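User: Please predict the structure of the protein below. I'd like the answer in structure-token form so I can feed it into my own downstream comparison script.

Assistant: Understood. Taking the following sequence of 145 residues as input:
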Amino acid sequence: MSGLVGTTVHRKFGDEWHSGTVSIDDGWYRVTYEDDDVEDLTANQLQQLVDGVYEGATISYFAGEKDGGWSQGLIREPYKQSKHGAVWIPVDQLDKSWSSDHCFYVDFASEGCCPIDLRSSRRTSDPTDATVGSWYPVDEPGQRI
């Protein structure tokens, strides 16, 4: 993660993208945005931001053919078992493991809300070659929505 110090990351707040520069401050990864707002993150939170996983991000998630294929959802908040209940794992997903550090409560609009695992190893850059449980960020800067 220290290799990210000095790099630029992007995060969408509302409808606007903001660029920020990564530094280290008192054991935290600090992102200083172009409007001088700052955000202190753990290594895990910084990795999630780099991956495109944060509150307000839009993702596309592949649940497999038995569970409806691809669905677009909005990340509402980090997962809390006491609040959100069991993590949803698609029927055909081979790897049934999950980690609360990588789970988020996602709103799939008409399909409902559920907590799912969005770890970086399940992120795909090629939706045509995805496995069940794969996902990708929909609205990264420079990408067409």
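That's the full token string. The helical segments are 43-51, 81-84.
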